Amino acid sequence: MKLKTMTLEWTGESLILIDQRKIPLEETYIECTNYKEVATAIKEMVVRGAPAIGATAAFGFVLGAREYINTSSSFEIFLEKMNEVKETLANTRPTAVNLFWALNRMEKTLKNYGYFEKILEVLENEAINIANEDITANKQMGAYGASLLKDGDTVLTHCNAGALATVDYGTALGVIRAAVEQGKKIKVFADETRPYLQGARLTAWELMKDGIEVTLISDNMAGWAMKLGKINAVIVGADRIAANGDVANKIGTYMVAVLAKRHGIPFYVAAPTSTIDLNTPTGKDIPIEERNHKEVTHCGGKRIAPENVNVFNPAFDVTDAELVTAIITEKGIVYPPYNENLKKLFEE
Ligand SMILES: CSC[C@H]1O[C@H](OP(=O)(O)O)[C@H](O)[C@@H]1O
């Protein structure tokens, strides 16, 4: 079975990824023919975005199974090798819980099935289910979230929580797409999102391709845009939502949330339930990835800071639940108290 979206293409034999490091200057693709290439693509952010890396890792798991099934003399040995595949993919990036959620789901499918015959087909179907469920969830989330936006609203977003951060359609940008599809005139202010520039490079590119009016601002302009009354709402994605509603998302999100609170602007988080981690009690328990210093000292491949300068480069921060107006999921809009109301999403 095959699958093709803006972010990825499963050919039945390999996984083709749009190289998000090159957008908007080039639209080029990388073909992964084995799980180690998939792991490298996630680590190097060829593909990025919590749901996108979850689905990508699921297909990496399938490629690993294809690689090891013919060299495993027993199913137990096969399971051992597949644990190695899972660990390799899990060790790529620590913050987005979707990565671990997807790998755990693939491993559970493998162990529940329990024997060789047709296992590759079973795993491929599960990976495709994960991908298709993400698209469905994004559209459901979009419909719920669109009810929070009025015709004529201007929405500020941070980073890229669009089709490129998911299998397709997007979370935060999915809400904006849904509102536009309902006929509402929505404008977007996109934070450039230093240092990796997901906003400038990916969000602006996605929205302009859709014909949705987008204004690019540098991250330090967000507060002034709010003070001038230009922003009606903030919508961002998430990489992990703790049981108490604390939200890990791209670095700079916390700053935007504090500014939104200061200016009485609603701050919404759009995320599928696969991003909610009830096993993580609070934001203090979320591992925050630190990335290469060159992402800060260089821009467009050119050095912009002195050699050997100290650098702090956390890829994410945590926004306290009290700063989050509501969490938009595919099961509905969740309001505080998050401890109780997030749990209910998994009880139905
Ligand atoms: C819909 S999840 C998008 C989420 O992922 C991004 O992180 P990265 O680009 O480092 O993978 C960012 O936190 C986005 O909000």
TrEMBL record:
Purpose of the protein: Catalyzes the interconversion of methylthioribose-1-phosphate (MTR-1-P) into methylthioribulose-1-phosphate (MTRu-1-P).
Stated family: Belongs to the EIF-2B alpha/beta/delta subunits family. MtnA subfamily.
EC code(s) of this entry: 5.3.1.23
GO molecular function: S-methyl-5-thioribose-1-phosphate isomerase activity
The keyword Isomerase is assigned to this record: yes
Pathway noted in the entry: Amino-acid biosynthesis; L-methionine biosynthesis via salvage pathway; L-methionine from S-methyl-5-thio-alpha-D-ribose 1-phosphate: step 1/6
Entry binding sites for substrate: 48-50, 93, 198, 249-250
Pfam families named among the record's database cross-references: IF-2B (PF01008)
Record-given protein name: Methylthioribose-1-phosphate isomerase
Site location (Transition state stabilizer): 159
Key words, A-Z: Amino-acid biosynthesis, Isomerase, Methionine biosynthesis
Catalytic reaction annotation: 5-(methylsulfanyl)-alpha-D-ribose 1-phosphate = 5-(methylsulfanyl)-D-ribulose 1-phosphate
NCBIfam families per UniProt: eIF-2B_rel, PRK05720.1, salvage_mtnA
Active-site residues, record numbering mapped to chain: 239 (proton donor)
Species this protein is from: Thermosipho ferrireducens
